[in-house]
């Protein structure tokens, strides 16, 4: 069974700090990796996707992928209170799978 | 362009009843997936449809069924409701089957079973 593991948190960081969110996955054949943000009472929203080893930057967000370690992370620089949300890691397996598996999410709290 | 729309947004049912949830994908999107999300957990996959054919089914009992219509809208049906079916039901669409990691979610239908 494909598993995606995230620490549920909450992760609390001060405004302006770097928030680091981590995710591990069990399916070594996984090819595609996604980070979704979900505000309380709202639906998930895609914020980053990454397909190759290394870093991918988009504004204040950086996704990092290490397939050998089966590890993907999301860094949020200059964290703002508006970044307070649950961040869901999703992994799309290999072998022609079209169904992403979601982790339980990490709750991030950015305090002023 | 309108996003993914779901109806109803909230509903309350009693045990044993049946419920139908509806979803309209983003225009041009041909893949629709259904997820169940309980508080504190990530979305759990229920069904995926592409071009009106079922392409995937999660680990849910046969009380759960779905279909996709020619206009790519979709319905999720749940029969013989149990208390444990109380959850947020999310519909997500993507343009092609190969894009199904990049999902666009609707606001969800929050089901409460009493």
Tell me what you see in this structure:
The complex is a heterodimer of chains A (112) and B (114). Chain A has 112 residues and is mainly beta. Chain A is 0% helix and 53% strand. Chain A is built from no helices and 11 strands. Chain A is globular, with a radius of gyration of 13 Å. Chain A starts with a strand and ends with a strand. The model of chain A has no long low-confidence stretch (mean pLDDT 94). Chain B is an all-beta fold. Chain B contains no helices and 11 strands. In chain B, strands 2, 4, 5, 6, 9, 10 and 11 form a 7-stranded mixed β-sheet that branches. In chain B, strands 1-3-8-7 form a 4-stranded antiparallel β-sheet, with no helix packed on it. The mean pLDDT of chain B is 94. Chains A and B meet through strand 4, strand 5, strand 9 and strand 10 of A and strand 4, strand 5 and strand 10 of B.
Can I get a quick summary?
Chain A has strands at residues 4-5, 11-14, 19-25, 32-38, 45-50, 54-58, 61-66, 71-76, 85-92, 101-102, 106-111.
How is the topology of this model organized?
The complex is a heterodimer of chains A (112) and B (114).
Chain A: E1 4-5, E2 11-14, E3 19-25, E4 32-38, E5 45-50, E6 54-58, E7 61-66, E8 71-76, E9 85-92, E10 101-102, E11 106-111
Parallel strand pairs in A: 2-11
Antiparallel strand pairs in A: 1-3, 3-8, 4-5, 4-9, 6-7, 7-8, 9-10, 9-11
Chain B: E1 5-7, E2 10-13, E3 19-24, E4 31-37, E5 44-50, E6 53-57, E7 64-68, E8 74-78, E9 87-94, E10 104-105, E11 109-113
Parallel strand pairs in B: 2-11
Antiparallel strand pairs in B: 1-3, 3-8, 4-5, 4-9, 5-6, 7-8, 9-10, 9-11
Keyword list:
heterodimer, A: 112 residues, mainly beta, six-stranded mixed β-sheet, B: 114 residues, four-stranded antiparallel β-sheet, 11 strands
Describe the sheet with the most strands of chain B: 7 strands, mixed
- Radius of gyration of chain A, taken over Cα atoms and rounded to an integer in Å: 13 Å
Low-pLDDT stretches of chain B are none
Total of helices of chain A: 0
Low confidence ranges of chain A: none
Helix content of chain B: under 10%
- Kindly state the number of beta strands of chain B: 11
Q: What oligomeric arrangement do these chains adopt?
A: heterodimer
The termini of chain A sit apart by 41 Å
| Number of DSSP-assigned strands of chain A | 11
Strand content of chain A: over 45%
Largest sheet of chain A, described in full?
Answer: 6 strands, mixed
Largest interface, with counts of residues having CB < 8 Å to the other chain, equals: A-B, 24 and 26 residues
The average pLDDT value of chain B, as a whole number, equals 94
Give the percentage of residues in beta strands of chain B.
over 45%
| Mean of all residue-level pLDDT scores of chain A | 94
* Coarse structural class of chain B: mainly beta
Coarse morphology of chain A: globular
Structural class of chain A: mainly beta
Shape of chain B: globular
Helical stretch count of chain B?
0
